[in-house]
Amino acid sequence: MDGLQPEPAGGVGEVAGNAEEKYRALAYDTALSTLVAVALYVVLKVSLDGFRQWRARISVLVVGSGPVGLTAALVAVRSGKVLKLTVLDQRYRTALLCRPQQIALDPRSVSFLLGLGVDFDNMEGCWHNEHFFTRIGVFQEYLLSILEQKKQKVEVKVQLGTKFTEEYLQRIPHKEWPRVIVVADGSCGDSCSVLGISPDYIVESCHAYGANASIERLDQRQVPTPEIRAHSLYFDLSAYGVEALREHRNTAAKSGFHLKIYGTFRNRYMALVCPASDTKMVRYLRHTANSSIMKNIFHESFNAYKTDIEPRLNDVTLHHMQCSRRLFEIQLSHRRISAAYIEGDNVAVIVEGEAARVLNFDTGFGINLGMRGLESVGTFIYRTATAVDQNDVLEALSAKMQHSKQVAEVFKQTGLTESMYE
Ligand SMILES: Cc1cc2nc3c(=O)[nH]c(=O)nc-3n(C[C@H](O)[C@H](O)[C@H](O)COP(=O)(O)OP(=O)(O)OC[C@H]3O[C@@H](n4cnc5c(N)ncnc54)[C@H](O)[C@@H]3O)c2cc1C
Questions:
Q1: Where would you find the membrane-spanning parts of this chain (predicted)?
Q2: Cβ-based burial of 319 (10 A; exposed 0-12, middle 13-18, buried ≥19)
């Protein structure tokens, strides 16, 4: 008679234990292979994204070849993310480079430009107090020559004598449209309206009053010259019935006027500023109908503070002086919309320089405001070139607009101090 078979060594418990071990090993293998697959996927994705970002190149169009447009063009070619760059200006080369004004680059703009490879040793100009002074045309010519040199790495096309219009845009084959348009067409440009960007400006007071003057003396030299600043000026207007001296001692009267003389000896410019106040003198200079008062103030101030080696203004040269008739409130206007997305065409537009923000007063320092805006252009181009989808582009545009607002805000708080009061 068959009795019960003896259990194999270990019995049922051992079989169950083996099965559980097998199951555990299987689970472990599955988890491990899943982990490896996920890790592989992540590594592959990161490397593919990296490769795609590394390879991403876009086409950029810069409208306007003023100092800001050309610097923006240099930022674009240096970003490593631009395959094709087109730079336009409605003016031909001679008209573009013959503008008489001088520009003054402050230490921050100098360091920004050094970072872009600008070699100040190879540019006609002069240094004073860590500021670099050069003619606007010299600066533009230098930037044009650098862009020329970049042609081996990036396809650079400079089209002078070409106006940006709706027809210009329509002539570009649709698949060749730029991904980024930088509008830097100055304070009188209308390219934003061609692109459908709102013409609304926010106008803000800088809490100061100012006046400008300019004089052209054709017999004088056109070489870069440092600026001259004078502070705490009071004018004797007693001849006009304003008792300035008594007011001068009044503690309520603010710190007087600040004067700046700048430009070359041939094209001299002057800026006169005082913090907003309601003193008798300020009120008088703001409302007087007698334009010869401002002219006299500029005349006397120039002769008092000019360099020793340049001639005084006399009655003949004074005749050529143009100046504000009276003090006016200094205001900064900046675009409400300084960045936009043209949806169907997948084009991001940013507005820079005086096309984005402009003062109604010339401080002789205007270029620096434009340079501040450009500080975020490199990042913007990088983000747009490597954007995965429309959301990324919109985020890049929003950050750009935020920066533009911040530039205006900072100028309102410290701009006049840096350019005039200090
Ligand atoms: C009298 C005067 C004196 C100044 N003195 C000083 C100074 O001493 N120091 C200083 O730092 N700054 C000075 N400035 C300010 C300085 O000139 C500006 O800050 C600077 O030029 C602004 O540069 P931008 O490139 O934004 O514009 P802009 O220099 O005006 O350049 C805009 C360019 O866009 C082009 N353009 C316009 N519309 C179109 C279009 N539809 N298609 C193609 N191109 C177009 C124009 O032809 C122009 O070349 C002075 C300005 C003036 C007027």
A1: 25-44, 56-77
A2: exposed
Q: Compute, in angstroms, the gap from residue 186 CA to the centroid of ligand 1.
A: 5
Distance 68 CA to ligand 1 centre (A): 8
- Residue 200 CB neighbours (<10 A): 8
Number of domains in the chain: 3
Closest to 144 (Cα-Cα) out of 220, 78, 66: 66
pLDDT at 50 over 80: no
> What are 48's strand-pairing partners?
none
Amino acid, res. 155: E
pLDDT tens track for 158-170: 999 999 999 999 9
Give me ligand 1 centre to Cα 239, in Å: 39
Q: Domain range holding 50?
A: 17-55
Are residues 62 and 43 both part of a single domain?
A: no
Q: How high is the pLDDT of residue 228?
A: 96
Strand partners, 348: 180, 341
Mutational pocket test of ligand 1: of 157, 354, 411, 420, the residue with most ligand atoms within 8 Å of the beta carbon: 354
Residues 190 and 71 in one domain: yes
User: Does one domain contain both 97 and 196?
Assistant: yes
Domain boundary, last residue among 330, 361, 383: 330
Please tell me whether residues 287 and 190 are part of one structural domain. Answer: no
* Model confidence pLDDT, tens digit, residues 75-111: 999 999 999 999 999 999 999 999 989 999 999 999 9
**Which ligand 1 atom lies nearest to the CA of residue 68?**
25
